[in-house]
């Protein structure tokens, strides 16, 4: 145990954020650089090293949280990094982007603020990079087997790194112009600077993984031909089909899916544009969808100089504390104020968009909405609650409905889908096509980054067993595992 009295003597203290006025002027991460290291050892000392560490159950990766908390408390950063990497290929990603179900499951959280697990995690890995403790780990020998990975998001990258280290020759195919999937173009720079992706890619290249950008399987390369070229294939193409809003006026200019809007801002940060083709500058912006993607749109719009930002959510406002129906250690639905919300946005709950209104040039100018409520399990409109919001830019951030079928990948492989429209797989993450496996959102449906990495690691084990007859790679989850909720 780190500090036997740490949870009694030390209060929870989180990373310090830069002033709103300062961070709205740039796209750097919102946290004060270096603010965690002076406090993180004591924060790690709050871990109680529980006899049954429920944080393990909250995390699908099975992260060895009490172990690296102990090392961080003792400032043995190399050992902490080793324990961190034992279960997680990319802790700098999860430490910045994961909503931390491990903290919701923290035993201390029963009656006190939970351990700042995310902050400890990101402190360990950032220090490991700075000190040179993160190095390439190429395989000792090659198996002579080849694997194609379709998609370079967290699931694809995790599967590729595991399989490369197992000795297989791996090529990752990405349809975008840069590697990273949604990590690259779906996550704004202020949440995770892309240097963190870039140096992981360089590590993977040094280990032997090959990368092929601007190649879309199904369009640029026939999927069946790809299967014949490689000994195995991992589909990690994500669930990239955005949920639409079929209401009158949807065809107006200025209404975009979040994933049409966010990547352009990231491309500005990459130096591809001086100004984004779609911008919130000087406009009243409405974001439809109350989740993390919606918050990303809020933060992006404020940095682009929006006149106002309003975020709409059809569900009621969550509570500030756990309800009786969401007991510990489940992951509760709570009211969250993200860094983007701190920067300014009106948040409106229990409303539904009825239609959009445009000008004579066919550009959206207003959004009409009405309050809603659930009665007997049905969503009903409340008469007399209509209102109109000015809106010259609307982003639809209502989630995703499944993997892309328009490019022909599903049909060309001959893949079977499950009842939810995801690629079906068995207990080994194998599809109905021999040698073809699926990992991440393409098989699970829209989920969290920590689940994507766990899926990639688990699918890699299935592929390794298929290629060699046995595998020592870890498989932290099964395809049927789900988050700890009620």
Automatic annotation (TrEMBL):
Pathway: Amino-acid biosynthesis. Gene3D superfamilies: Alpha-helical ferredoxin (1.10.1060.10), FAD/NAD(P)-binding domain (3.50.50.60). Signal peptide: none annotated. The keyword Oxidoreductase applies. Residues 146-456 form the FAD/NAD(P)-binding domain. InterPro entries: DPD_II, FAD/NAD-bd_sf, FAD/NAD-binding_dom, Glut_synth_ssu1, Glutamate_Synthase, Helical_ferredxn. Residues 39-131 form the Dihydroprymidine dehydrogenase domain. The keyword Amino-acid biosynthesis applies. Keywords: Amino-acid biosynthesis, Glutamate biosynthesis, Oxidoreductase. It holds the Pfam family Pyr_redox_2. This is Glutamate synthase subunit beta. It comes from Streptomyces amakusaensis.
């Amino acid at each position: 145990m780190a500090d036997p009295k740490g949870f009694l003597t030390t209060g929870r203290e989180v990373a310090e954020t830069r002033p709103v006025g300062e961070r709205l002027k740039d796209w750097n991460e919102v946290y004060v650089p270096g603010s965690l290291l002076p406090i993180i050892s004591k924060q790690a000392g709050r871990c109680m090293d529980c006899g049954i560490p429920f944080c393990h159950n909250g995390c699908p990766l099975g992260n060895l949280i009490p172990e690296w908390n102990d090392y961080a408390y003792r400032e043995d950063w190399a050992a902490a990094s080793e324990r961190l990497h034992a279960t997680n290929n990319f802790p700098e990603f999860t430490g910045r982007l994961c909503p931390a179900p491990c903290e919701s499951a923290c035993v201390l959280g029963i009656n006190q603020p939970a351990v700042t697990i995310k902050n400890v995690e990101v402190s360990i890995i950032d220090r490991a990079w700075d000190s040179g403790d993160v190095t390439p780990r190429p395989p000792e020998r090659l198996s002579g087997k080849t694997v194609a990975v379709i998609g370079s998001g967290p699931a694809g990258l995790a599967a590729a790194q595991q399989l490369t280290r197992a000795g297989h020759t791996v090529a990752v195919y990405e349809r975008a112009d840069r590697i990273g999937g949604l990590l690259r173009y779906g996550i704004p720079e202020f949440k995770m600077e892309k240097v963190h992706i870039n140096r992981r890619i360089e590590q993977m290249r040094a280990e032997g993984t090959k990368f092929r950008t601007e190649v879309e399987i199904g369009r640029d390369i026939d999927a069946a031909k790809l299967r014949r070229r490689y000994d195995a294939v991992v589909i990690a193409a994500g669930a990239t089909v955005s949920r639409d809003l079929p209401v009158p006026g949807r065809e107006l200019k200025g209404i975009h899916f979040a994933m049409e809007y966010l990547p352009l801002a990231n491309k500005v940060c990459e130096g591809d544009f001086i100004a984004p083709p779609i911008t919130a500058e000087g406009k009243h912006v409405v974001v439809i969808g109350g989740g993390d993607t919606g918050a990303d749109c809020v933060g992006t719009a404020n940095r682009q100089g929006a006149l106002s930002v309003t975020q709409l959510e059809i569900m009621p406002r969550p509570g500030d504390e756990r309800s009786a129906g969401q007991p510990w250690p489940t992951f509760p639905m709570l009211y969250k104020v993200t860094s983007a919300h701190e920067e300014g946005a009106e948040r409106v709950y229990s409303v539904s968009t009825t239609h959009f209104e445009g000008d004579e040039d066919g550009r959206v100018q207003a959004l009409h909405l009405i309050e809603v409520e659930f009665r007997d399990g049905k969503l009903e409109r409340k008469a007399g609650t209509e209102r109109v919001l000015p809106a010259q830019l609307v982003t639809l951030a209502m989630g995703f409905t499944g993997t892309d079928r328009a490019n022909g990948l599903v049909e060309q492989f001959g893949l079977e889908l499950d009842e939810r429209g995801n690629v079906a797989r068995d207990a080994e993450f194998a599809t109905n096509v021999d040698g073809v496996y699926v990992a991440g959102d393409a098989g699970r449906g829209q989920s969290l980054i920590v689940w994507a990495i766990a899926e990639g690691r688990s699918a890699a084990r299935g592929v390794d067993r298929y290629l060699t007859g046995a595998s020592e790679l870890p498989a932290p989850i099964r395809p049927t595992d789900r988050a700890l909720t009620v």
